[in-house]
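[Automated response] Your request has been received and processed.

Submitted sequence:
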Amino acid sequence: MKTRNLILLSIGCGLMILLAGGFKLFQVATDRTEVPVNKLGVAAMIGDMTTNVTKIEEGAGGISVSIEMSGVAGDSVIDGWRLLGDGEVLEPSGAVFEGACDASTVVPDDGATIQCVLRFAAVKAVQAVAYTRAGEQRQWAP
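Generated structure:
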């Protein structure tokens, strides 16, 4: 085969790859992945964990979010929770007070539901509270 033919074939293959990549980019750009937004008090199953946000309160110390969790025994309660507010994503502060979830709070071994409060920094507008686990996410909005 002549060098000219090989160059033309490689250019043709490159154009085909470019067209296929452009088509795939168009497919991905038009995909809509929607995360369901639950109302307060509606439980959601995420992987093997059942979670629920029962109350969101604004106070002088920040935003308090009352949660309930059950499922995988020994997993940290505070991991995976985020507050979406004022265009920012905030993590729990880990503040220690009566009934608070902190870094040492874990899901009980007996399958019981744990109830505690997450504390977040103050924001002007709370859009949602989100929990992420096993590649899935659920949100609760006030």
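Summary generated for your ticket: The longest strand covers residues 49-59. Strands lie at 37-39, 44-46, 49-59, 62-70, 81-85, 88-90, 114-120, 126-133, 136-141.
If you did not submit this request, please reply to this message.
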